[in-house]
Design brief:
By secondary structure, the protein is of the alpha/beta class. It has 8 helices and 5 strands. The chain has a 5-stranded parallel beta sheet, with helices on both faces.
Amino acid sequence: MRLLIMGPPGVGKGTQAVGIAAHYGIPAISTGDIFRTNVKNQTPLGQEVSRIMADGGYVPDTVTNAIVADRLGQSDAGEGWLLDGYPRTSGQVDALDAELARTGQALDAVISLVADTDVLVGRLLKRAELEGRADDNAETIRHRMEIYSEATDPLLATYRGRGLLVEVDGIGTVDEVAARITTALDAKLA
């Protein structure tokens, strides 16, 4: 099974990715985790990413695409995977399509966790308070939501057009949302 998971900040995408991957016996692959691990370990990639981020830039698609292609080629991903945090641009969609075509694979589904913005803002404000993140205020959080939507809506439209999109209500307990996801995926892939 080859899956993508998408959803706005605060919807619990990372938590659900780990559970879905465990349920289906595939690795959850988070590009954010890959970058953080490389930065922490001061690998050549980590040093490059640190430089880019220190200058206020974004990691270029060419770097991200190469990292993902390398990770998908590792032995534990041979029977499938779940990507979290990738693709984020139409160029990354094209690169993933090319990599899948090169390896004779295809996506099975794209999970989109959906939730009311006001609920997510409240959730993120509570998390910011608990974690002492003074820079996370309602205005900042809503701005991040707008950026996410602007970047992701075209990708979701692409996958909807391909018949791959599985939209799931992302509000509820972790177990409730997980059950909705597996039910929807099992129905789609049956």
